[in-house]
Amino acid sequence: MRHGDLITKDPDSVEPYGFDWTSYLADFGAEAEIDTSEWIITPLNGESPSTLTIDDESIEAGNLKTQAYFTGGTQGAIYRVTNRIVTNTAVTVTDDRSVTMKVAHK
C-alpha cells in the first residue's frame, strides 16, 4: 500500500495490507528500524470500528515493513486505516501512514 491509497476490501475476506517504510527510515541512518507498530481503524461514515478488525499484525523484513490482516467490515462502510510507527533512533520518531478502505463485494 501507499499512503493515501483507496483500497476496496471484500467483507468476507481476510487480507494482508502493509507499508514499506524502508526509504523513509533510510533518512535516519543505516541502523534505523521500526521499534513499534500500531494499527488504528477510524470509521468515516458513521460505521462502528468493531465491524472491521485486525486478526494479526507484525513488523517484517528486518523491522522495515509493517503488515496487518484485516477481516470483516460492513458492506458500504468506509474506514481510515492508519499505521503508526515509532523508530528505534536516538531521538525517537513517531509517524503515521493512512489509507482509505472501502468495504464492498469484489
Proportion of β residues? over 45%
- Name of the CATH class: Mainly Beta
Radius of gyration: 14 Å
**Shape call:** elongated
Tell me what the CATH architecture is. Answer: Sandwich
- The order of strands across the largest sheet is 1-7-6-3
The computed structural class is mainly beta
pLDDT average, as an integer?
93
Low-confidence stretches: none
If helices are DSSP runs of H or I spanning 4 or more residues, what is the number of helices?
1
Helix fraction by DSSP (H/I, runs of at least 4): under 10%
CATH third-tier fold name: Immunoglobulin-like
Provide the number of structural domains.
1
Total DSSP E strands = 7
Main sheet makeup = 4 strands, mixed
Query: What is the rounded distance between the termini?
Result: 18 Å
Q: What's the order of the H and E elements?
A: EEHEEEEE
Helices and strands, with pairings:
Layout: E1 6-9, E2 14-20, H1 22-26, E3 34-43, E4 52-60, E5 65-72, E6 78-87, E7 94-103
Parallel strand pairs: 1-7
Antiparallel strand pairs: 2-5, 3-6, 4-5, 6-7
